[in-house]
Amino acid sequence: MDNNIRTDLAVEARELYKEGNAGEVPGVEVEDESSLNVKVTRVKIISQEGQQAMGKPMGTYITIEADKLRDRDMDVEDEVSRVLAKEMVALLKVDKDALALVVGLGNWNVTPDALGPRVISKLMVTKHLLELKPEYKDSGLRPVCAITPGVLGTTGMETSDIIEGIIEKIKPDFIIAIDALASRRMNRISTSIQIADTGINPGSGIGNYRSALSQDVLGIPVIAIGVPTVVDAGTMANDTIDMLIETLMKQSKGDTQFYSVLKSMDRDEKYNLITEVISPYVGKLMVTPKDIDAVIDDVSRIIANGINISLHENVTLEDVNRYVN
Amino acid sequence: MDNNIRTDLAVEARELYKEGNAGEVPGVEVEDESSLNVKVTRVKIISQEGQQAMGKPMGTYITIEADKLRDRDMDVEDEVSRVLAKEMVALLKVDKDALALVVGLGNWNVTPDALGPRVISKLMVTKHLLELKPEYKDSGLRPVCAITPGVLGTTGMETSDIIEGIIEKIKPDFIIAIDALASRRMNRISTSIQIADTGINPGSGIGNYRSALSQDVLGIPVIAIGVPTVVDAGTMANDTIDMLIETLMKQSKGDTQFYSVLKSMDRDEKYNLITEVISPYVGKLMVTPKDIDAVIDDVSRIIANGINISLHENVTLEDVNRYVN
Amino acid sequence: MDNNIRTDLAVEARELYKEGNAGEVPGVEVEDESSLNVKVTRVKIISQEGQQAMGKPMGTYITIEADKLRDRDMDVEDEVSRVLAKEMVALLKVDKDALALVVGLGNWNVTPDALGPRVISKLMVTKHLLELKPEYKDSGLRPVCAITPGVLGTTGMETSDIIEGIIEKIKPDFIIAIDALASRRMNRISTSIQIADTGINPGSGIGNYRSALSQDVLGIPVIAIGVPTVVDAGTMANDTIDMLIETLMKQSKGDTQFYSVLKSMDRDEKYNLITEVISPYVGKLMVTPKDIDAVIDDVSRIIANGINISLHENVTLEDVNRYVN
Amino acid sequence: MDNNIRTDLAVEARELYKEGNAGEVPGVEVEDESSLNVKVTRVKIISQEGQQAMGKPMGTYITIEADKLRDRDMDVEDEVSRVLAKEMVALLKVDKDALALVVGLGNWNVTPDALGPRVISKLMVTKHLLELKPEYKDSGLRPVCAITPGVLGTTGMETSDIIEGIIEKIKPDFIIAIDALASRRMNRISTSIQIADTGINPGSGIGNYRSALSQDVLGIPVIAIGVPTVVDAGTMANDTIDMLIETLMKQSKGDTQFYSVLKSMDRDEKYNLITEVISPYVGKLMVTPKDIDAVIDDVSRIIANGINISLHENVTLEDVNRYVN
Question: Which residues form the propeptide (chains A, B, C, D) (predicted)?
Fold first, then answer.
């Protein structure tokens, strides 16, 4: 089963499963929680069976969804930062002085892939201050360091090798890795944030640069934060065709014959066929919001704010909005 | 007939016509010319009938296509600059001292729409030098001025009003307007350049900001230079489905029933249906190359070089590569 | 008298006069007003004599100074935006529906000169909305349009010609022009804002691109808003030498001989000498803050916020911080 | 002796010594070589005495100077790239398959400090290709990887720690480190390149972020490439005053008294005094070219080209200009 080829989001892997099967995914527990503007879904993969069905490693995947983010309302943005911080604190079982290394994955120079580096640029980095300036002692600040390792194509090195090397030298207690993701649903772009305690595992993402950054590989806890910023072109065509068929059926244009033909093709078969016919382009093209520059700017601030208030005991969102941004 | 809703390129309007009709478009003359790397197509709309069939005003539309531009080979890029210059000189029937106003349309801050402003930033601007410094007299330089008027959403003004105001004051003899276009073929993105003596007329483009910039409106000749940098998402889905059906038929998966259903829908009906089903997203999404930043950088240099050598008698591509870029 | 060669700020022209003369400048009235964080100085040049002594046209020059801006505290930034709005409203004697054209002077691509264009990018532009969307009627929004005309070196056109052309076409009722200035005091950089009802007159500025934008030239009121972002290298050397001499005297290193020699040179003579000895470089060099990118970002937001709340009846700073930035 | 506080360039440390002393610096050997456009000076510090006098570690410091770089002539730029490559090959005594790690020091977001990261963005990175694609075997390409580690203020980590960690993991055979430097001569900015086999040692630089990157620390050869992009404000004032005095003496304005006073102050005393009087600002200000963005763009290409052709056996400058940039 290769769902992870088509989505980085556990909620979408689950959707894919449920399209083809009745009931909840075996070995998976799901919790929902909603406020007026924000919906939180916690998907826990608790067994090998669940791992198999979901195509993702065992662990907790929290998705924060807020359609209103599309309107760029700063109130909703602040609420999402607070929810992000709350969920991270719940996942992060670390001492308040534990050293954090925040890793901004992705490519500075490709806007939809620049989420990680942009978050780093808005982060409160404190390790050097706490070491150099005694007055910061007992300031309620946690030691935080950060790196933007770049991508395989520009460094020639596996990102995991760079991070492992830094870990050996700096000895952080845990890692937060931020990355831009690919979604299979156009309406999730820039409105969903996934937090996972399983770290980052090779998947589609935007580039193919991502090597695994997980506790197994690095030996310390790795929290991954991801936001869908692009849709794979093949996926988009696929979804469009499905929507088209449904609509045609409703309008009872087209007959059972027609329906049966495409129904008879299983999803992967159809996806592979589509990918094949558009392959000369699909590798070079992406589907992304027209205002992607502004979107990345907003979402990176939302995430940086969430991280800043979750990592430092005495830092409030007001402080961050006033003195950091 | 609303082809111009879906393409800014005359060669594509022609393709659309020929899909549904046998023979050449009535009232249209076509010339082809090819070298190893570059193909030139000159489409002349010479009658009301042609205008009707093409959904574009009468005039000459020259398309320069070079697939190798995708490989970013500087030899091919230089060749395209030279071809662009040659075709412009043929279209431009102006005195060698005639004052040129070059207009860079589009939005600086949206990468795929930034082609125009980027070209202006690489342009040899000489009007002020020729006026202020006598030593430039007889230097073989033409007086050239340039403006990036911005877009309706950021200026609150119609671009045509801004340009008309400047024309009244500066009195240029002709205008060259550069703009990013939308294509209906994914493989034309960043590999095709269209030059038209009809100026720019309201169409899809990338934004909806464009007001007409034509000789009728402005009273002086207007040469438009455009490059497709995005594909409309609906168009892409449509093309994908067509490719899919063809492939299915070849593989004789699917039966005549299946084929007939979609065949029975006429193109516009199908397009409108698709646009409708993806409408919640299509307005917000674009399909563009993953390396769009690099693409815009290259293409804007190619066009600026072409303009620079076509406007100034004594300026060669070597000069431009060495002293301007 | 050519003080305006060395400073764009009326408060500095006044300082220069008072260095050489006792008492207030004749033909000049001055008002001070201070809060904890912000100092406002209103210099009114009310006679030919004052114009002569100050080297600036008759009119009102308001300087807002806030040293704390150096610390990038958002509370102080908001206070400065409010003061800026209050002072502008006092200077602007216009109907609440009068059409505003905001002009962002300077060069996008030279960071210390990019203040004007950056302000425009953060501005609430409403003219097109009020025309196209009836629902905005009686929304308390003023019609505002905006332009970034570029600089002589990149357009080949005098900025005043571009603006005059647009005015003839668009017919705004008044103009607000934003520009980066040169200061003769290093400590004023990025901490002072000058508002003047005399518009913009040829002066040092950062580039030499600036043609006059004033009511005499344009026929409508012109409010100029400027912020010092660079110090002229010659000026800085000059100030340093003066500080050095003072210090030497205090430390009674150096004798009256020494002092008298430099004292005997009048200020302009000394300045010209310095400019001469460093002339091979002074033209190419600027003195600017190391964090100029961040400074321009902050100051442009402060000014855009001030303009946004001063122009639109029903817009508060909270609205702007939440929904515009 | 603290010359290295005021200059990163060995040629300037030598000038400083010779101002106060007759003859060549003891323990230092100097070679000159000039072409029409490019001057090469090789300063070899060969003894403890030389190290003492120069305030720099023993080793070879090669300075390439080309005033014409100010005119941005691509012919001269290419010549400088070739000279840079030739000098590097002479310093680099490594096997043709030895793995290179290129380190781009400095801060992406502060233009005059962005030289290192910009060079990396133009570099031919090959390590991953040589490992993944057998067809590159025997292509005459050397394995090259690259990193932009950021600065202490944004990472919270010492740059040397990051690099040491990566070295332990990746095991490169040698390092090339690129950094922006501070010069004490305004006319050297962007026209001089220094190559040193002593690596990078704590010094003024632009920021204070730099920890030592040398063979002693890292255990492998480290070639440092630096270009002056700023002048320290105190240095500039100092130079200006010296130029001023000379001029005054020539013009026999001022008497021996005057001269003797400043002559009687030794250089460091005067410098410290100046730094003190302008200290409130000097920390926050830099003196840099007005067209610094364009300068960094050009110089980073010159250096990247030089590195690309020096590291890869079969790569020519023509290849690089055509296929890399």
Answer: 1-8
